């Protein structure tokens, strides 16, 4: 890999991090944002170069009985590849809020293989 390519990849990573920080950072505690960034990087991986797209579908959020600051998430993600073929993926997750009502932790589960589909389309 040439020096220009590494520099281009580095600047794309910086741009993505700055975008994430500006767009999502205010909703997270500092440690929560640090835990969120790897998820966000993965799901944006190759998005520009491979022309795939995401669209968020139905979302259900329910407070858990175990902890008053914890919520279960169920949502649909529509993935469209570069050929215009779309597929819907159900996702689940858990969000925990900390001080000031900011997200302290958010985790996603991918039971139907959205992550595999992304890797196959990069």
Number of separate helices: 4
The gyration radius over C-alpha positions equals 16 Å
Helix/strand/pairing category: alpha+beta
List the helices and strands in order. HHHEEEEH
* Main beta-sheet strand count, sense and barrel state: 4 strands, antiparallel
Strand order of the largest sheet: 1-2-3-4
Summarize the structure.
With 122 residues, the protein is α+β, with helices and mostly antiparallel strands.
Give an account of the 3D structure.
The model has no long low-confidence stretch (mean pLDDT 86). The protein has helices at residues 3-24, 30-44, 47-50, 114-120; strands at residues 53-63, 70-80, 86-97, 103-109. The chain is built from four helices and four strands; from the N terminus they run H-H-H-E-E-E-E-H. Strand 2 and strand 3 form a beta hairpin. The chain has a four-stranded antiparallel beta sheet with strand order 1-2-3-4, covered by helices on one side. The chain is of the alpha+beta class and 122 residues long. Helix 1 packs across helix 2 (30-44). The protein is flat.
Supply the key terms.
about 40% helix; about 120 residues; flat; alpha+beta; 4-stranded antiparallel β-sheet
